[in-house]
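Exercise 7. Given the components listed, write out the predicted structure of the assembled complex. Treat all entries as one system.
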Amino acid sequence: MVETRPARRATNTGPGRLLIAVYLLFAIAATSRAGLQIATRFDEAPVAYLLSALAALIYIVAAVGLARAGHTGRRVALACCSLELVGVVAVGILSLADKELFPDETVWSQFGSGYGYIPLVLPVLGLFWLWRTRRDPA
Amino acid sequence: MTSAAAADSPVDGILATASIVLSLLVAVWALVAAVRHRPPDRVQVAGLAVLELILLALAVVALVAVGGGERPGEPGAFFGYLVTLVCMPPLAWVLARMEPTRWGSAIVCAVCLVAPVVVVRLQQTWEVLGG
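Answer.
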């Protein structure tokens, strides 16, 4: 790494802002998709649509957490990224094992294959970024 | 090879092609800027503006088709992608303004790399998959 800046760094500048951009994109994508599905045909696949809504909420909160930086923001982002990683792996496995459970695709189905596997990579990048910027005074 | 039915898709025409090409061009330009440690320049901003206009036109064409009684194969995903697509250039612009460093260019690059994927997904979710 050829960064010349001091070691201490907020989560919301530099590469962190890029991460926030991707999180915001996913927040918009998941929110609009889940919102429409819940509004128009909720009874077809309630589990899948509620899950999409939950994923959307987590993306929004994670983006806000990263953007707010600070101690609380970091904790919020840490919780969201962890939850996301667990969610995408669990749903990925479940959607492969039992297709009946998710008759309609969610953001996290098949490890996010419908979204270029970015849902799987994103929480890892988020956690990595939180780890990289961890030198903030406690 | 896709079927001939794709020809009447409202999101599969000159506008879609133009948005993909322009988006990739801006992405390359922004990538060069990011590699050279340059903040977003006028070319990137202008590229995002033109891209947004094309995407808005694409959205209007799609909505007109829906208004005319046509339906996408997967409405949930289709409109999700459509809303996302239209939000992308402004999002890139706002964040690039907030980050006047090489990472601002990286944001523009990332968004402009994702946009063509979303356009392709838009086309896929319009076509009725598996009847």
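Discussion: The interface with chain B takes residues 13-15, 17-18, 20-22, 24-25, 28-30, 32-34, 36-37, 40-41, 104-105, 114, 116 of chain A (CB under 8 Å). The first helix of chain A runs from residue 15 to 41.
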